[in-house]
Amino acid sequence: MYPRWFLLPGAAIYAVLFIAPTFASFYFAFTRWSFFNVEFIGFDNFVTFFTDPQLSKAFVNTLIYGVLTSGFKVVLGLALGVLLTSNILARSYLRAVVFFPVLVSTVGVGITFQALMNPSHGAINHVLAFFGISGPGWLTDPNLALYSIIAVDIWKGVGLATLIYMAGLVSIPSEYYEAATVDGASGWKNFRYITLPLVSPATTTVIILSLIGGLRSFEIIWAMTGGGPGFSSDVLASVIYKQYAAGFYGLSTAGNVVLFVLVAAVIIPLFSWLNRKQVDL
Amino acid sequence: MYKSTRRYRSAVVVGLMIAATALTGCSAGGGGGGDDSSGPVTLTWFSGAGVAANTDTMKALAAAYHEKNPNVTIKVDASGPSGSPDIDNVIKTKLATGAMPDMFWYNSGSLLAALNPDQTMLNVKDEDFVKNLDPTFVTAVSSKDGVYGVPVQSAGGGGIFYNIPIYKKLGLDIPKTWDEFLANAKKIKDAGYDAVEQTYGDAWTSQVLTLADFYNINASDSDWAKKWTENKVNFADDPVALQSFTKLQDLKDGGFLNKDFASAKLDDGLKAIATGTAANYPMLGFAEATIVANFPEHAKDVGFFGIPGDSANSAGMTVWEPSALYAPKNTKHPAEVKNFMAFVASKAGCDTITKTLGVTGAYVVKGCTLPSDAPKIVADMLPYFDSGKIAPALEFLSPVKGPNLASITVEVGSGIRSGEAGAKAYDDDSKKQAQQLGLPGW
User: Fold this and answer.
1) CA distance A35 to chain B (A)
2) Separation in Å, CA of A51 to nearest CA in chain B
3) pLDDT tens digits, one per residue of B405-422
4) Range scoring the smallest mean pLDDT among A114-128, B7-21, B203-217, B298-312
5) B96 to chain A: which residues are within 8 Å by CB?
6) CA atoms within 13 A on the CB side of A4
7) Nearest chain A alpha carbon to B84
8) Which residues of B touch A228 (CB under 8 A)?
């Protein structure tokens, strides 16, 4: 379609900024690296990474985080999408409100909720106390911290899922619904047998985007708990960051390779499976 | 025709934007000021934003120096992140990429060793002002090949801050052993006070008890730090060293902690110990300045003792060397920077710090004197210095310090992990640091 020279600038940028660092990282993952000296140490970094006692916990946390945020964004996004494409009052305004948190800085949201969730002088526990409930330490209870962050992540990200679903919902031709209504289908049957199958391209997009986002999530966790208390809300990305900050550049690069492999191992099969399931309009 | 011209134009615009970004990338973080050494020079001094007293010190030193050397203006840039590991990361990255301003403030000891100073920092080994410094401090700012920093505050003890009115009211004595400390804590708790304040909202404060216990380890074996560097001893298997972690567990098990220990921050802890809602707070001497600044009416209500060990006879104190002023190797104004360092490491520098913060500990610069009206916390530290019952903290004797200690001590102090498991986790964590430094025996 284009002459070769036309593709060159793009290819050059791609090679310098993407291909070269990717392959360099595969090399540095096998080294002990201090920016100045490089010593090749074989698989030692990977052995250290996988025998790290904190890591198994971070690994499980990463999966919990990815699956829960993705799952809730699908369910809530679809429900809100249906609501906001129907004929309701102030529809445009409500659409804007749902989407607004997506536009706010993630770190800003994290710091704000850190203050709101403070166990002794945060707004959330003050409101609960008004109703006579003694609120928990949202971010300080080691069993609860990860789930508090997940809830905030869902609140912040559901607007994007809703937007994608709204685009999918309005592209379903209304003839299907009219025909089904003539045949006597109920509202639930309309949803179950027309909306759900025909909106599946949007579902695929939402699952893939939010799962990738969830598995490599970092900013909101770092802003809210820094992986704490202790290591109880650490995920792969925060462990990698801490190793990088400690100056273990080779080790943290190895961690990034592991994260890359994990994301690829989850997403590629899932993507092809979801694509096979899709129905053509 | 028109369309293609427009495309061409936008391509040029994009090209210019890329070029502009690349150019700003090159100049970002430069020192600023002219290259001509005879003209006015501006030096930028970078630090983290964590502790207000540190920023005040920087500003006071900068102003005092400018008064004597009107040609040199020192700009204080305390815009770095406030806590570890973020500030460690920023410092390392700025040094490695050559983006560090003319000078920066950072810890001495093992954290300095992790910066690779021989390759990144300005060596001041042969300067006269180094001869003015205490040898223990010089070790803490040295590597194999050089000396890199001058002290920006004083050496202070780490131990227990205690509330004097509570101790008086309950008729308690300063504990000489850990068992006495726990017995006191029980009485304080029964009297309705928070026996021990902990502030894990600032995770680094959780390490203080463990780190300040090193005097007791050193008292049991004065070669311990050397053996630790050579991987011949560790915390999990040495019964004395293990106590540095189990003592933290004792506090949680005894129910001695303040209710909001998991979310409280340093300033909350200092308020509690000054105003008397809590009776004991493991803390480092530098925090004394914050108490005096924020609660001047309670400055005489807070005293200090070292972390008690097994034997009443050997009770002593762990000492923290001050943080230091360093410069990157690529500063454009090495002569001016060294001249400023000479000022900081002189009596005039010490006096400026005393005027700003009051007395917070013992200076490590020869010829510096302390005024006689030292506040109570510092006055309580001086007998330890005088009797020689002191040991530097482990991080000033060995480059091996695991980066995750704060998270591990938060776990032990919160009851998520036992003291034994915490000691083991810290040994494993330190192994990574030793391997990264390329030390033999690991």
Assistant:
1) 7
2) 10
3) 999 999 999 999 999 999
4) B7-21
5) 35-36
6) 0
7) A245
8) 200, 203, 407, 410
Q: What is the CATH number of the domain that holds B124?
A: 3.40.190.10
What is the SS3 assignment for B256? coil
Domain-located, residue B378: no
Pairing between strand B194-196 and B156-163?
Answer: unpaired
pLDDT value, residue B176:
92
Interface contact A228-B416, CB threshold 8 A: no
CA-based nearest distance A168→chain B, Å: 33
B152 touches B324 (CB < 8 A): yes
pLDDT at B152: 93
Average pLDDT over every residue of B332-360: 92
Q: Which of A8, A13, A35 to mutate to test the interface with B (most CBs of B within 10 A)?
A: A35
Number of other CB atoms surrounding residue B425 within 10 Å:
26
pLDDT in tens, B6-48: 444 444 444 444 444 443 333 333 333 334 446 799 999 999 9
B187 shares a domain with B109: no
**Token duo for residue B111:** 């954290």
CA distances from B425 to B84, B208, B230, B242 (A): 19, 17, 18, 12
Q: How wide is the angle at C-alpha B238 spanned by C-alphas B234 and B242, nearest 5°?
A: 90
Do B257 and B305 fall into the same domain? yes
Q: Do B432 and A248 touch (CB under 8 A)?
A: yes
Q: How many CB atoms lie within 10 A of CB A14?
A: 12
Whether the Cβ atoms of residue B419 and residue B408 lie closer than 8 Å to each other: no
Please give the structure tokens belonging to residue B376: 């109570």
Largest CA distance in chain A: 75
Contact criterion met (CB < 8 Å) for A36 and B116? yes
Minimal C-alpha gap between B196 and chain A (Å): 18
End residue of a domain, out of B335, B363, B391: B363
Low-confidence ranges of chain A (pLDDT < 50): none
Domains along the sequence of chain A with CATH: 1-42 (no CATH), 53-277 (1.10.3720.10)
**CA nearest neighbour of B185 among B239, B275, B244, B248:** B248
Q: Could you identify the residue written with the tokens 């990034």?
A: A256
Residues of B in contact with A139 (CB under 8 A): 263
| ipTM of predicted complex | 0.83
Rounded distance between C-alpha atoms, residue B424 and residue B246, angstroms: 12
How far the first Cα of chain A sits from its last, in Å, is 29
pLDDT for the residue numbered B106? 95
**Cα distance from B380 to chain A (closest Cα, Å)?**
33
- Asked whether residue B333 falls in the same domain as residue B430, the answer is no
Determine whether the interchain pair A139/B85 forms a contact, defined as Cβ–Cβ distance below 8 Å. Answer: no
Which of A61, A248, A253 is the mutation pick for testing B, counting most B CBs within 10 A? A248
Q: What is the pLDDT of residues A180-197, one digit of tens each?
A: 989 988 888 989 999 999
Structure tokens at B275: 């105003």
Task: Number of A to B CB contacts under 8 A, please give it.
Answer: 91
Tokens of A74: 């699908």
Tell which of A231, A235, A239 to mutate to test the B interface (max B CBs under 10 Å).
Answer: A231
Q: Is the pLDDT of residue B105 over 60?
A: yes
Computed over every residue of chain B, the mean pLDDT equals 87
Prior bond of B135 cis (ω within 30°): no
Structural domain containing residue B341 = 41-151+323-363
> By CA distance, what is A51's nearest residue in B?
B428
